[in-house]
Amino acid sequence: MGIGGISGLGFGVSGYAAYQATAALGPVTRADNTGATGAVSGAIKNPGESVQKAPGRKSSPAECQTCKERKYQDGSDEANVSFKAAAHVSPSAAGAAVRAHEQQHVSNAYKKASQNNGKVLACNVTLKTAVCPECGRSYVAGGVTSTQIKYYNEENPYQKDLKSSDRAKYLGNNIDLAG
Q1: For the whole model, what pTM was predicted?
Q2: Closest to 154 (Cα-Cα) out of 111, 108, 109, 116
Q3: Residue ranges covered by each domain of the chain
C-alpha cells in the first residue's frame, strides 16, 4: 500500500475485506430487529442498574432484556484482536472494552508499519454511542479505527506502477541532438 492507503479496523457485525476504509465495532443485530424479546417480566436482569423506568420506555435499565443480550463482535480481518466471536459486554463496561479493543488495532497498525518499512501517518479512533430502545440507557455502541500508513518499500506494487508510469512520461525528454 502506498501513500494515502487507508486500512480500516474495528468491531462490526460482519467481516470486511483487507484495506477497507472503515469497519465498525458494534452490537450484533438481533434477528427480530426490534431490540426487545417481548414483555418484561420484572426480574432483575442487569444487577446494579437503576430500577427506575423512564417515561415512554418498556423497562428500567435493571430489567432491560435488550441490554442483557447485546453482544459485540469484531468485523475486521485481523486475527489477533479481541471479540472475534460475539460476546456480551455490560453497558457500563462497554466504553472501556471498546477503547481497549480499538487500541489493539492501533498497536497492530504500528507493528505492521514497522515490519514492512512503513510509517504511520495518521491514526484515528472514533467511539460511537447509542440509546437503548427498550430502557433508554445511553451506551457505547462501537468504535472505528482508521489508519494511514506510508510504505517506503520499492517492491510495493503501487510504487512499481508509479515508477512505470513515470518512465513512460519522461522517456525521451533529455536527448542530446548536438552530439
Answers
A1: 0.62
A2: 116
A3: 6-29+45-164
